[in-house]
Amino acid sequence: MATTASGIETMTYREALRLALREELERDPSVFLMGEEIGVFQGSYKVTAGLYDDFGPERIMETPISEEGFVGAAVGAAMAGQRPVVEIMTINFILVAMDQVVNHAAKVRYMFGGKVGCPLVIRTPNGAGNQLTAQHSQSFEGWFAHVPGLKVVAPATPADARGLLKSAIRDDDPVLVIENLQLYKAKGEVDTSVDGAVEIGRAAIAREGGDLTMVAHSFAVTRCLHVAERLQAEHGISAEVVDLRSLRPLDMETVAASVAKTNRALCVEEGWASYGVTAEVASRISLACFDDLDAPVGRVGMAEVPMPYAKSLEDAALPHEEKILIAALEVCGA
Amino acid sequence: MTVIRLFEQESERQYKRARIGGYCHLAIGQEAATVGVVAAMGPEDLLLSSYRSHGFALAKGVPATTVMAELFGRQDGCAAGRGGSMHLLDPEHNYFGGWGIVAGQLPIAAGMALAAVKQGKELAVVCELGDGAVNMGAWHESLNLAAVWRLPVLFTVFNNGYGMGTRVDQSNAEPEIFKRAAAFRMPGERVDGQDVEATHQAAAALLERARKERQPAVLEVMTYRLRGHSVADAGTAYRTKEEVAEWAEKRDPIALVTERLIAAGATAEELDAIQRDAQREVDEAVAFAEASPMPDPSTLADFVYGDPETGRQFSRMAPGSPAGEAAVLAQLEQAA
Lengths: 334, 336
Ligand SMILES: Cc1ncc(C[n+]2csc(CCOP(=O)(O)OP(=O)(O)O)c2C)c(N)n1
Ligand SMILES: [Mg+2]
Description:
Distance between the termini of chain B: 47 Å
Distance between the termini of chain A: 43 Å
CATH topology of the largest domain in chain A: Rossmann fold
Number of helices of chain B: 13
Oligomer: heterodimer
Largest sheet of chain A: 7 strands, mixed
Shape of chain B: globular
Bound molecules: thiamine diphosphate, magnesium ion
Number of strands of chain B: 8
Strand order of the largest sheet of chain B: 2-1-3-4-8-7
CATH topology of the largest domain in chain B: Rossmann fold
CATH architecture of the largest domain in chain B: 3-Layer(aba) Sandwich
C-alpha cells in the first residue's frame, strides 16, 4: 500500500477487502469470519491474510469442507445475534449450500412474519479466464439477484470493495458480496481517512460519455472501460460506463438517466446472458427508456457453453473486449 | 508407478513453461496408493476420482499421449481439450472422470453401481475421494444409499494428511476415517498406501465382496502428497519442511517398491529398463501433445448437447440481437 498525507492510499482490491474485514472486526465484536482455508493458509486468494494472527481462531474460524453445514451455521448464528461473514472459496462451491442461502437465509425474515432477521454476509469470487474449466469458471450472481430476501452487490473497484463489504456487514439482511478472481490484483485509490461505507443499491458512473451507455458490474466494468477508450480513440464514440455495483436492489434511475442522455445501451456481463443480469437490465431499459432509444439494447455475455479448458476455446467463450467492441459499434450503427 | 512419477514431474515442468494451465494437482508421493487400488480392479470395474486425476488415468490404462494432450488443451486430449487436468476421462478404459467439486463424484459412483446392478453385471465401482471430502453431506448421503440399496461401490479415501492446508485431525471429528463406515454398517479398513502390495491386497478383497455380495465398503488408504495442494501451492505454510523430508526420504513409495524389487532379485539392468521405458512413454506423450492441434474455435459449442438440432436452436436464440453472440461471432469470423 502506498500512502499519501491526505489518507488516499493506492491498494489492491484484495487489500481493500481485507481492510474492510479488519475495520469491521475491530468495530463490532459480534462480527466473525468463517470459511475454508481462511486462517493458517491465509485464504485461498489471500483476502484474509494476517487476520488469523491478529484476531485468533475464535474470530477467524476455519471450517471443514462442508459448505452446506457452515453456511447454515452462519444463518443460525446470524439469527441468534452474531454477524458472520462467510467466505465461499469461489462462487462455484456455493451450489452445494444453495438450499441454505435461497431456502433458508433469504426466507427467514419474511416467512416468520418479520420476527427475526438474518444479518449474514457471504463473500465469494466469480470469474473465469485462467483455464479453470467448466466447474470452476462460473458467474451466476444473477441467480441470487433473482431471489427476494437477498441483497447482492458486486464491486468493481478497491474503494467499492471496501465500502460495499462494510455496508454488507452492517446490513440487517443477508447480503452476497460478489468478488472477482481477476479483480483481486487490480489497484485503485481508497480514502482510509474516512469510513468509506458505500450505500447498497446505488450505481456509479465509472466513465462519462454522451453517445452510448454501457451497463456492467464486477469485472465486466473493467472490460467496458477499456472498450470505451478504444471507442473514443478508434471511432470517435464517447461511451458512458455505468457500474451497477448492486444487482439487488438495482439502481435503474442511474441507468435510465444515462440512457436518456445517450439514447443507446449495451449491457455486458461475465456470465451467461440468457436469463442473466443483462436480460433483466435490458428489459428494464427497454421499458423505462422506450422513447429515448435510437437502437435496440445490446447484450454481451459469455458464450453459452460450460467453460472449456483449451486456451483457444476459452478465449472464444469469454466476453472479451473485441466482442464488446463489435457489439458497441453495432448498437451505435457504426 | 514410475510412469506416474515421471509424468507428474514432466507436468510440473510443462506447467512452468505455460504449456499447461488452470489448476494442476500432482499425485507425487501417492503412486503406490493409486496403482495398488487400480491394479486390484477387474477389467469391467469402473473408476471415478477427484481432480487429482493424472495418476488414475494412467494407472487405468488411458494412454499417456492423450492424457498429456489433454493437459496441453489439445484436440486429441482424452476429453477433446475441454476438461484439462481435473477432468480426464476415458470410457474405453472404464475411467469415468476426474471431478472438480469436492465429493461430487460420490453419488455419481453410487449411481453407476446402481446401473450395473440393474443391468445384471457383476462389477464394482471404485470411487476415490480425499480425506477432506468425508465432511461433505454427499459423503453421508452416498454411503447411506450404497448401504440401503446394496450397491457395489468401494469408497476409497486417499488420506494424504491434508485437505489443502488443513490437517485431517483439524477438520475431522473422527480422524480415523475408515471407522465412519460403521455408521452405515459397512466394512471399513485402513491400509498403508505407501505399500503397493498391501494396498493391492486390501482393495482386491473388498472389491471381490463388492462384486460377489454387492457389499459396499470404505478403504482408507494412508498416503502423502509430496508436493503442494496444486502447483500454485508451495506446500510449506501448513506443514514443516522436516515432515515433508521425512516422507520423501523414508516413505517414498517408489523407493520402497524398488527396495523390495532388489530384495526379490531384480537386477540393476531391469530397474534401469523400467526407468528408461517410463521416460520414453512420457517423452512420447509430450511429443504427441505438442503435435496435436489446438481445438478450433468453431467447435466451441460441440458437446453442449448430444443432439445437433438443439445446438442450432441455441445459436438462433442467442441473446442481444442485433448485437447477439451469433452476430458477433459471425463478424469476428469475417474480420479474421
Ligand atoms: C465443494 C467444494 N468446496 C471447496 C472446493 C475447493 N477445494 C478443492 S480441493 C480442496 C481440498 C480437498 O482435500 P482432500 O479431499 O483431502 O483431497 P486432496 O486434495 O488432498 O487430494 C478444496 C477445499 C471444492 N473443489 N469443492
Ligand atoms: Mg487430502
